[in-house]
Amino acid sequence: MKIKKALTILSLIFFIVGIESCQQQGKSTTWSDAQKTKWKTECQQALIKRGVKANQANDVCDCMFKKTSEKYTPEEAIKITIEEERKLWEDCNYQW
């Protein structure tokens, strides 16, 4: 009986952890590898054209992608405004 109760508790814990993990990922699971690569490449190229060093552009774009993909699907991300981008990416230490 104790084993059955312990297994029930463990199952409940794994279920809760699984739900929290899915919620933390947001919409990031909607992005394919090709979409991630394209987004990051375009971001890096745009920053480098503005004079940002390649390694800094990579770091900023990784951060920006993480924040974008958590909140938006690829289809939604195409439609966000510059104001939404600025609010979303404030934590990435990029000066506009």
Describe this structure in words.
With 96 residues, the protein is mainly alpha-helical. 74% of the residues lie in helices and 0% in strands. It has five helices and no strands. The protein has helices at 2-25, 33-49, 54-71, 74-78, 82-88. Helix 2 (33-49) packs across helix 3. The protein is globular, with a radius of gyration of 19 Å.
Please describe the topology of this protein.
Blueprint: H1 2-25, H2 33-49, H3 54-71, H4 74-78, H5 82-88
Helix pairs in contact: 2-3
Number of strands: 0
Unreliable residue stretches: 2-23
Give the oligomer, counting copies of the same chain as homo and different chains as hetero. single chain
User: Taking all residues together, what is the mean pLDDT?
Assistant: 77
Major sheet size, sense and barrel closure: none
Which range best describes the helical content: under 10%, 10-25%, 25-40%, 40-55%, 55-70% or over 70%?
over 70%
Q: Given the structure, what is the number of helices?
A: 5
**Computed structural class:** mainly alpha
User: Which word captures the global form?
Assistant: globular
| β-strand amount | under 5%
- Termini Cα gap: 62 Å
Topology pattern, helix = H, strand = E: HHHHH
- Round the Cα radius of gyration to an integer and report it: 19 Å
Short description:
The protein is mostly helical and 96 residues long. It has helices spanning 2-25, 33-49, 54-71, 74-78, 82-88.
Q: Which terms would index this structure?
A:
96 residues; mainly alpha; 5 helices; disordered N terminus
